[in-house]
């Protein structure tokens, strides 16, 4: 086996354990999309074109609520702004990658691929290191498409009376479990949640997601500043 | 069709947010302060999906206090808090929600 394929398979092996929690997400996404009236082709199309769990769930939620295109697009942008965080570390390690590789990785790099790519690139400077990111990214992609398809299939047999749309808020609660123990995060969560709940009827164009998110981030800005001052 | 063009635009936004960080953003652009604030993005964005999805029903009005969704969400938050496990959080919430709907 050549060195590059060895590194490719190492990428697959490294990311595999992280795929376990992804499986129910993909299935729930497929089931929900079908429940909400999207066709099978549109559903798998979303998983291929958007290829981002949180973005796709927000798309489902807002589209089925009748939000405008602009609101959906900006909400997806808001969710994705967390990706900018990873830039600092990754761009440094990938600066010698060819442009075409950067484009390919950008499509593949979901949160789980970021995590393993980051720790691999930190410790390895092999000339074939790009194959590690590639193996991790392809694995995430294949798992996401397969689980979406399983969900599409299950969605056509699972009755609507199960109320599976409730899985959307549960999915996002699950994504926040690591923040439940930090006081500032809890305050930000409550501020954003209250503004979106009460703003739902007041804020026009269903822009409550953006308004609440900006207010939450602004309160994080103030609260962390306050914490810094206290520590000095 | 508006659905497909919107999906493609959302795909582009998602792609660009990843591409920007790999291709354009440099480490020096991020002070510790910016990084700290950006780390709050999930806490600021996700509740704006979670809260209305729980407290507002399909007909666009507030739910009653004894709605099974509230019970399910509380169970999910507690399980998430103690287990920090993503799968356990989702399924404990769903199961407790179904328990109230179908068994009570």
Summarize the structure.
The complex is a heterodimer of chains A (232) and B (104). Chain A is built from 12 helices and no strands. Chain A is mainly α and 232 residues long.
Explain what the structure shows.
- The complex is a heterodimer of chains A (232) and B (104).
- Chain A has helices at residues 3-15, 22-35, 40-49, 53-64, 69-80, 84-93, 99-108, 111-123, 130-155, 167-175, 183-202, 208-231.
- Chain A has 232 residues and is mainly alpha-helical.
- Chain A is globular, with a radius of gyration of 20 Å.
- In chain A, helix 1 (3-15) crosses helix 9 (130-155), helix 2 runs parallel beside helix 4 and helix 3 runs antiparallel to helix 9 (130-155).
- The model of chain A has no long low-confidence stretch (mean pLDDT 87).
- Helices cover 75% and strands 0% of the residues of chain A.
- Chain A contains twelve helices and no strands.
- Chain A has two domains: 3-163, no CATH class; 176-232, no CATH class.
- Helices cover 75% and strands 0% of the residues of chain B.
- Chain B is built from six helices and no strands.
- Chain B has two domains: 1-35; 40-104, no CATH class.
- Chain B has helices at residues 2-24, 32-38, 41-45, 47-55, 68-83, 86-103.
- With 104 residues, chain B is mainly α.
- In chain B, helix 5 (68-83) runs antiparallel to helix 6 (86-103).
Q: Can you write the helix and strand succession of chain A as a string?
A: HHHHHHHHHHHH
Mind describing the biggest β-sheet of chain B? Answer: none
Distance between the termini of chain B: 44 Å
Q: How many helices of chain B?
A: 6
Largest sheet of chain A: none
Number of DSSP E strands of chain A = 0
Query: Oligomeric status of the shown chains?
Result: heterodimer
Largest interface: A-B, 92 and 68 residues
